[in-house]
Amino acid sequence: MNRRSALKSKENIKKAALEAFSKYGYNGASMRMIAHEAGISVGGLYLYFKNKEELCLFLIKEKLNEFSKNAQIIFENVEDPIEAISRYINMSIEYAKRHREFIITQTRDQGFTFGMDIKREFFEDQKKLIKNIIQQGIDKGLFRPLDAFEVTKVIMGVIRGYILSFVMDPDNVFDAEYCCELILKGLLKENP
Amino acid sequence: MNRRSALKSKENIKKAALEAFSKYGYNGASMRMIAHEAGISVGGLYLYFKNKEELCLFLIKEKLNEFSKNAQIIFENVEDPIEAISRYINMSIEYAKRHREFIITQTRDQGFTFGMDIKREFFEDQKKLIKNIIQQGIDKGLFRPLDAFEVTKVIMGVIRGYILSFVMDPDNVFDAEYCCELILKGLLKENP
Amino acid sequence: MNRRSALKSKENIKKAALEAFSKYGYNGASMRMIAHEAGISVGGLYLYFKNKEELCLFLIKEKLNEFSKNAQIIFENVEDPIEAISRYINMSIEYAKRHREFIITQTRDQGFTFGMDIKREFFEDQKKLIKNIIQQGIDKGLFRPLDAFEVTKVIMGVIRGYILSFVMDPDNVFDAEYCCELILKGLLKENP
Amino acid sequence: MNRRSALKSKENIKKAALEAFSKYGYNGASMRMIAHEAGISVGGLYLYFKNKEELCLFLIKEKLNEFSKNAQIIFENVEDPIEAISRYINMSIEYAKRHREFIITQTRDQGFTFGMDIKREFFEDQKKLIKNIIQQGIDKGLFRPLDAFEVTKVIMGVIRGYILSFVMDPDNVFDAEYCCELILKGLLKENP
DNA sequence: AATGAATGAGATTTCATTCAT
DNA sequence: GATGAATGAAATCTCATTCAT
Question: Do B119 and A187 touch (CB under 8 A)?
C-alpha cells in the first residue's frame, strides 16, 4: 500500500476510535471494535498507535488543541468583554453540539486520572483566558464586582455540564442563547 | 451467619461497589475488587446481587431515590420560588460534594444506555419540579418572563456540570453561593 | 475446591512450568502449554502466579535455594578441603543430572538479564564458599599456590559447562569422577 | 540496487541478526527488530532469507564453520599434544571472547532441537579432533593413562562453560591461562 | 450463608510472513 | 531489489460467573 492509503488508514482509525471511546468509554470500547469500524485488522491498529492508551491520549490531545485554537481566535479578535464571553459560551456549546465526540475529553475511565496532565493544562489555560476577560469586564465597570475566579469556575462548570447533558440527555439540552443570556444577566451591572 | 451479619454484608458490598464504580467506571471496576473491598468472597457477591449489571443498577436507583427525597422535601416545604430554587441548587451541590459517589448516576459506560430508563425518568421528574417552580416565579412576577423550560434545562446543566467538575478538577470547583447568586441575578427582575 | 486441591494445583503448575521453561526457554514456553500440562485452564494459572515473569522467577529462586542448601551442608560438615571440593563438584553434577530442569537457572532469554539480581547473588555466594575452601587448601599446603579466585572461577565455569552440556548433548556428558580427578590433580601439590 | 549493495545488505542483516539472536534468543528476537537494526525493510529481509529459521540456521552454520577452520589449523600444524591442547583451549576462549555472538551456537530455544543436527555434527567433529590428540599424548607417555574420551568431554565442557560464563557473568570470567594450566597439570604425568 | 478455585470467553498485544506498489 | 502496510494466528492476561465444598 502507498503513503496515501496509510494516511487514509490512520484517519479511519482516528474516526472509529473517537466514535467508540465517545460512545462506550475507554474500557467499554475494544480495540477489536475500533479495528472493525476502521476497516482494518486488529494488528493493523498497532502499526499506527503503540497501544490503546496512546490512541486515546492522541485523540484527547487533538480535540483539546482544536478547541483551544477556537478559543484563542475569539479572545484575540474580540475587544468587548461582554461579547467575548458571549462568543466563548456559544462557541463551546456549538462545538460540543457539532463534535459530540468531544465528550472523549471528559472521559472518566481509569479513575479520572486518564490523560489528566494534558487535561489539567488545558483547563488551566482556559481558566486563565476567561478569568482575564471577566476581570477586564469588572475593571471597566461593565460587570458587577464579583470574584473573577469564582465566576470563571461557574462558567466552565456550566459548559462542562452542557457537554455531559448533551450526551446523557440530548433531546433536552439547553439552548446556547438562553444560557448565555442568563449568565450575562447575572454578570452585568443592573443599570446598563 | 444470621440476619444481622447478612445485612452488614450487603451494606459492605454496596459501599465497596459504589466506591469502585465511581472511581473506575462500570467496566473499570471488577467484581473481584469489589468483593475484596467489601471483605467478602467473590462468590458471596452473587448471593446478594444476581450479577454486575444488577448491582450497578441497584446503586444508581438508590442514589437517585435518595436525591429525589431531598428534592421533594424542599419543594413541599418552601413556598417562595426564589428560596426554593436557591435551596435546590445548594442542596444539589452539597449533596454532590458529600456524596462524591453520586457521580455514578452520571456514568456513561456501556454506550450510555446503561440504566438509562431509570435515569431518564429521574431527570424528567426533576425537570418537572424545577420547571414548575420557575413558572410560579414568572407568574408571580418575581422572575423575568423567560421560557421556564429553557431555564430549567440550564439549571440542571449547571448542576450536572458541578458534579463532573467536582470529580475531574476538585480543587477548582465553584462555590455554591456564587453559582446560586449568579443564576438568581439572571432570573430576577431587574428592579426588585 | 478445597485447600488440598489448591496446593495440588500449584504443585502441578510448578512442575509443568519448570519442564516447559527448561525445554523451550522463557519465550519458547507458552502459558497455554504450561496450563495444559498442569491440567488447568489458562486463566487458572493466574490465580497462582501474577504473570509469566513471576512464575519463572519463582522457579528460579526455588531451584537456586535448593542447590544452596545442598552446598551449605557440604561446607559445614566437611573439614578437608580436598574432600570438600570433590564433594561440591560431585554434588553439583549429580544435582544437574537428577534435576535436568535446573537448567532453568541458566535461562538466557530476555538478554540474560532475566532474574539477574537473584542469580548474581547466588553466584556470589557460591564463589565465596568455594574460594574460601580453596584458600584453606592453599594455606594448609595441600594445593599448589595458585590464585584462589581464578581457580574458583574455573571450577564454577566447569560446572556451568556441565549443566549446559547435559542439556545440549546429554549422551556425551562427562563423568563427575573424571572431572573431579582432573581438576584435583591440577590443584594438588605434585608430591603428596 | 547493484550487486555490491546487495552484498552489503546481506552483510548488514547477518550482523544485525547475529546480535539480536545472541542478545535475546531465537524467540526473543523479532524480524522487525533485525530489519530495523540492519537498516532494511521487513519485507527486504525475506529477499535474502526464506524465513526466520533459515536465517538463524545460516548464522549458526557460519559461526561453527569459522570455528572449525580455526581448530583445523591448530591440529594440522602443531605436532606436540601438550601444545595442541593448550592452543585449542586458548583459541576457543579467545574466540568466544572476541565473538560474543558465538553464544548463538549454544542457543537452547525451540526445545533444543533447533539446528541440532548441525550442532551435533560439529560437536562430534570437535570431539574426534581432541580425543585423537589426547590419545596421542597418552600413547607417547606425555599424559597420564586416562580415558581419552572422558578427558575430551571434560575439556569441551569447560569451554562450553566458559562461553556461558562469559555471557552470564562477564566480569567474573576465568583466565584462559589459568584454565589451561589447571587442565594440563591434571593431564600431565607427575614427573615430567 | 459463604468460600474461592476454576472456567471460558474475550481483551490487548506481538509477530512472522505476504503482497501490492 | 525494495518497501512497509496489512494480516491472521497466537501469546499474555483479565474477568464475570459458576459450583463443589
Answer: no
On whether both D43 and D131 belong to a single domain, the answer is no
CB atoms within 10 A of CB A57: 16
Q: Are C82 and C129 members of one domain?
A: yes
**Are C95 and C67 spatial neighbours (Cβ–Cβ below 8 Å)?**
yes
- Segments forming the whole domain that contains residue C30: 1-49
Dihedral of alpha carbons C15, C17, C18, C19, sign = positive
> Considering the domain boundaries, does residue C192 fall inside one?
no
**pLDDT per residue as tens, chain C (192 positions):** 555 688 899 999 999 999 998 888 888 899 999 999 999 999 999 999 999 999 999 998 998 999 999 999 999 999 999 999 999 999 998 888 887 776 666 655 555 567 888 888 998 999 999 999 999 999 999 998 989 998 898 888 888 888 878 777 777 788 888 888 888 888 887 654
Among the partner residues D153, D165, D190, nearest to C174 by beta-carbon distance: D153
Residues C25 and C118 in one domain: no
**Site of grid cell 585423537:** D132
Residue D133's CATH number? 1.10.357.10
* C1' (E16) to CA (C174) span, angstroms: 39
The enclosing domain of A23 has a CATH number of 1.10.10.60
Domain membership flag for residue D39: yes
Q: How many domains does chain C fold into?
A: 2
Q: pLDDT band at D66, cuts 50/70/90?
A: very high
The answer to whether position A124 is within a domain reads: yes
Chain A nearest CA to B187, separation (Å): 7
Cα–Cα nearest to C114, from C57, C52, C34, C49: C57
Strand partners, D136: none
- Give pLDDT, residue C108: 59
What the block records as the C-alpha cell of C181 is 580427578
Residue A192 belongs to a domain: no
Does residue C151 sit at the D interface (CB-CB below 8 Å)? yes
Mean pLDDT calculated for residue range A77-83:
93
Q: Please check whether residues B10 and B64 belong to one and the same domain.
A: no
Q: Is B4 on the interface with A (CB under 8 A)?
A: no
Strand partners, C188: C143
Residue A11: per-residue pLDDT: 95
Interchain CB distance below 8 Å, C123 and D172: yes
Same domain, B109 and B36: no
Q: Where would I find the beta strands (DSSP E) of C42-164?
A: none
Task: Cell 591440577: give the residue.
Answer: C186
B128 near A CB under 8 A:
no
